[in-house]
Amino acid sequence: MVLPLVPWPASVVPLDDVVPTVEPAKHGETLRTDPHLHAEGYRLRIDDSGVLIESSTPAGEFYARQTLAQLAAAGPLPGIEIRDEPRFAHRGIMLDVARHFHPVSTVEAVIRRASALKLNTLHLHLSDDQGWRLALASHPELTEAGSGTAVGGDEGGFYTRDDWQRILDAASAHHMTVVPEFDLPGHTHAIGLSHPELVADPAPSPHLEGPPPPKHEPYTGIAVGFSSLRADAPGLEPFLRDVLTELAALTPGPYLHVGGDEALGTDPADYRAMVSLITRLAAETGKTAVAWHEAGVADLPRGTIGQYWGYRDGSAPECAEWVEKTRRFVDNGGRIILSPADAIYLDMKPHADHPLGLTWANGPTSIERSYDWDPGTVIPGLAEDAILGVEACLWSETVRTLDDIEQLILPRIGAAAEAAWSRPAGTPERTVESFRERMPSH
């Protein structure tokens, strides 16, 4: 039986002994607590007596209601019983608010859309070469000097403390954890606008079409790899301790994301030393550090989480170095978040002539390609219990508005949601053909 559900539930049983459809207005709703259910799992039964939701936590009840809403959107409610729980604990979406700044109202809209697909994590990329987007009491100069512009010379912006609390409150109301990211030690040109003493001179990068941008001027392009902190800068450690400690204090939840990617002009020894320092300082706040897979070369606190952004076929030769660095997190007692760029980087064009998006991750990413992968096979030989979860990423080089966001994330965010929640790909319900049938009603 094909249901218009995203993600596909673990067990769906049509109830042939009751009326085939139920009219909610004529029947009551019953809630029950079952402590034996998975913390995010639920049972949903619809029959001629009404709707029964069983869960062990408010999150489970919330996800049951998302399924109920999906069923209602497709037509009359069927007589059915669903027993459902997620495959992975971390089911996320990343929104880049550094390349283009997005106001609180847009972030709230993304939270609503993502949580309706049972995603439970919002990763916010809060700093990059183009801007520093969160005001800190310890270092107000970061936003004063580094938040005014965006890609293409567009208007910048930043979140005040009240703005940040609004985002946290919206996430909590939708059972989502916020994972904040200050990207370090690369992607740090904006830091240099207020702290030139902490950053190295911009370095040549294969992604630049000309010379590196001046150290003292805002950067409004989209190239990467030219900026870095200085490993030998006096005052670097106190500065990093200040910003990471305040970020941890402002944000509930277990994680601090510290970046670690694309420091292409940084001396390898300096890179390893700075990543080791940054992740240690993050761990000293009581949080677990998360870093992009390049950081696997450093001496990391045990249990640091790695985020893999290589390609979905980790056995391909071009992925060998990425996979090796990713495995080091697991060897160090950590787990992995999978964000294969050629599947669930939502900023990739869905087709070649789409006006938004980029194509560097093996060209445009179609619905079929975004769906045709499985988390358990990306890193060859990686045990499933070493996978923390799945996270779709939306970088904002070409993304200015909520409409732009929706054009790029829908429907491919549904493919990421199914990969994160549902059975492995290839089982009868988990096919792209089934996905295409189920998504339009959603």
In short:
With 442 residues, the protein is α/β, with parallel strands linked by helices. The protein has helices spanning 58-73, 104-116, 141-146, 161-173, 189-192, 236-250, 268-284, 320-331, 341-344, 367-371, 375-378, 402-409, 412-421, 432-438, and strands at residues 11-14, 21-22, 28-33, 42-47, 50-55, 77-78, 80-84, 90-96, 121-125, 127-128, 131-132, 177-184, 255-259, 288-292, 305-308, 336-338, 387-394.
Descriptive overview:
This protein is of the alpha/beta class. The chain has two domains: 11-84, Chitobiase, domain 2 (2-Layer Sandwich); 90-438, TIM Barrel (Alpha-Beta Barrel). Helix content is 30%, strand content 18%. It contains 14 helices and 17 strands. The protein has helices at residues 58-73, 104-116, 141-146, 161-173, 189-192, 236-250, 268-284, 320-331, 341-344, 367-371, 375-378, 402-409, 412-421, 432-438, and strands at residues 11-14, 21-22, 28-33, 42-47, 50-55, 77-78, 80-84, 90-96, 121-125, 127-128, 131-132, 177-184, 255-259, 288-292, 305-308, 336-338, 387-394. α2 runs parallel beside α4 (161-173) and α6 crosses α7 (268-284). The mean pLDDT is 94. One of its GO terms (molecular function) is beta-N-acetylhexosaminidase activity. It holds the Pfam family Glyco_hydro_20b.
